[in-house]
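Q: I'm writing up a methods section and want to include an example of the input and output format. Could you take the sequence below and give the corresponding predicted structure tokens, formatted cleanly so I can copy it straight into the document?
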Amino acid sequence: MVLFSCKKQNKDTVTNILSDHPKDSVTVIKKEQPKKDNECKIDSLAMQTTEYNGITFYTENNLRGSGVINLSINKSTEIFNMDKTSYGKILVNNNDDENIYDVKLPKVVIAREIIPDSEHRIFNFDAEEPEADKDFLIVYINKQKKLIEKKNNNYSFQSWDNYIKTAFIQLTPEVSTTSKQELSYWYKVLEIKGDSMQIKSILKTDCDYIEEYKNVTKWIKWKQNSCKLIKFNFCY
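A: Here is the clean output for your methods example:
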């Protein structure tokens, strides 16, 4: 489930990353993130979002917390464990236009969507509502709760329903009654009711990545408990 930019240059970058690391990425993520009984199905290669300065970033099918927090990182930010010990840092390099961020995190990072390059600067995390803690944001990194100070960071929060409605949707074989052709279309979300959503296919002109279109409007089962059965895509 890749979350990627819709610019063709970035599509090629993602493709090259996957082809250059066909086995190592699977080995690393399985070793560092063992599957638990309550975890969703995962295809490690397809879940990779990007690589940046030796760190491989993945998304996941498991929806954690109450929604998604987007951080606008303009100055160095520290990430803490729940006991307030340091977990990692995202440092800002004001003198480097190419590598604006020096990311001090594990070599494998699972989060909703992190693309730290200077073009995108995306830091999205599954999270609890900001009101859950007075001083800290509670976000999920590598399937565990982490803390980020509120007072020194610009952030916005979206509930899961609102976040999903900002995304384009692709279906997977996990969605029942889906034809092979329907797997190639992109969709927008019209309505969400629990585990079901109504989707409508979008035109090829809406994003450079869309290669097929047919007018389709239908209801689907998009998740099973906290496991999503669809792909989220964005046109940046």
